[in-house]
Write a structure and sequence with these properties.
- This protein is mainly alpha-helical.
- It has one domain: Up-down Bundle (Amino acid/polyamine transporter I), CATH 1.20.1740.
- The chain has 18 helices and 2 strands.
- The radius of gyration is 21 Å and the shape is globular.
- The N and C termini lie far apart (43 Å).
- The structure holds tryptophan.
- Tryptophan binds next to helix 1, helix 2, helix 10 and helix 14.
Amino acid sequence: MMKATHRATFGGQLGAVLVTAGSAVGLGNIWRFPYVAGENGGAAFLLIYVLSVLLIGVPIMLAEFAIGRHTHSNAVGAYRMLSGHWTALGYNSVIAPLLIMGFYLVVSGWTMEYMIHSLTGEFTRVQTVEEYAAIFSTFTQNPWRPAIYTVIFTLLTHGVIALGVQKGIERSSRIMMPLLMVILVVLAIHSILLPGGMQGVKFLFTPDFSKVTASTFLTALGQAFFSLSIGLGCLVTYASYFKDDTNITHTALQVVLIDTLVAVLAGVVIFPAVFSVGIEPTAGPSLVFVTLPAIFNTLPLSMVWSTIFFLLLVIAALTSTISLHEVLTAYIHEEWHLSRRISAWIVTAACSLLGVAASLSLGAWKWLQIGGKSLFDLLDFVTANVLLPAGGFFICIFAGWVLDRRFMPHELTNKGTIPLRLWPLLRLLLRWVCPALLLLIFLDNLGLI
Ligand code: TRP
């Protein structure tokens, strides 16, 4: 197998964990998880979510790690190297991140704008939830402000990518991930101590199974997928920078633990706050941009709390946009044989254009609709409901059925040098359980069952 020895690698196990956790921890954990859990009954959802992460998330993450680390190549090159017939899966792995960036950068831009507004104290004048709702819709529909923030966020991502794999991606994760954890813990403690806050904690940890339906399972699975960055090349690309002696099983378990912990802590930040002012926890996607700022405003030092909360979102989003950008940059650099610098600029230009178009499709360019959905919603829908589960499904088939049956154990044990007791279980999950469940999610998302 061809091994490109000149390629950069991450420093070691800790670097690998922090960088991958940076990709996984994102808006999915802090913005999406709390409202999805809120809509689906809280604790019961959390339980099903954790099961999905362990049964589906871990095996697929391991497959992607093994493929990336073995080939030390970008996503397209990795699949091509292992089997010429499966290059299409590699292309799915690089096209999907571009489409995700199209809407993810827009939401990331909103978090940045909200952080700046909080910092300048503009929000302190606002009083009711309705006013916040009005601010949110005026802002997202403004013809140029969110578009500019989208571009600024893309350039910020570019800045890190331009510094390179070690000095940019790894070093920024080593700084941002611990900072993120500290902010999260501080905010969580603050929330629990709010009057009535314990009610929110109870909501998150006392399961109410009467709210669980078949679709709760599929929603939890979909959320686990998005949150762990599975299914579209991020993990393959990052694992291609792992060292050959990195223990990928341990790395996966640690990343999964951090990602789940962050989602739970985000719930601990948000639900007590929601309950303390008597708002329903089912506010949906606007929970973070409308409900929370309104809640912060009722607290002493509101400016401080809301600034650090949105800083938390900015950091979480940035470490994820970096991973999405890198999938594309590595692909263009290695497959089109362009310099890394030029490759990064091509990606930045493409992401900015798509992001700006998606942002405008919510307001000034209302005509930019396909099939009744704005470009923004369409990008979200197609990636989360089609490309991600499809990518996951084919990765299972590829790793479980197509590759030589010694491939996975060989990689997971670092050529037999470290033990791996659970392989029979993992193999069963990868070959049967994961593909079957993914097929279900896929059909359910498209409204076919
Ligand atoms: N996991 C990130 C989040 O929770 C988003 C993300 C980054 C992602 N890379 C991905 C999602 C790859 C799916 C696939 O916000």
